[in-house]
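Request: When convenient, would you put together a sequence paired with its structure tokens?
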Amino acid sequence: DIFRHMTTRNASSLISVYRKAEDLFRRLMKEKDIFEEWVVLGSIDIDQFVDDRMQEIGDFELNFKMLKVRGREAERLPTERKLDCFVVSFLPVKATIDDHMQRLTDALVTSLRRSVASAVAELERFVDDAADTLASRPQNVDE
């Protein structure tokens, strides 16, 4: 019986409470948006992404440099934020960001190794073919 009368007696206060709650949740959602660009790597297959896009040495160099820069920027992200009565911890998100960046680094290193191994194999084939050509004795004037 008491609770039924509480809402009717305090209707104007409840409206204010709901407005403040909506504002607080809107601010909380803005905090979430800050980290959205940082966690996008979790939505793709990083290995496939790297294999599809890394073709030249310059691609690898650029991405290693960008990872270094972004790593420094990630360190400056806040670990927590107080919004009125809430304290929001960003430590799990920062740990996920670090994990994504490490996975991207690993994928870049693996792809670069495969690329180098492929180039070395191609070079060895060329050298072997050239050595075979030079080692064979010509049978006629055209050779």
Notes: The two ends are 109 Å apart (CA to CA). The first helix runs from residue 2 to 9. The chain is about 75% helix and 5% strand.
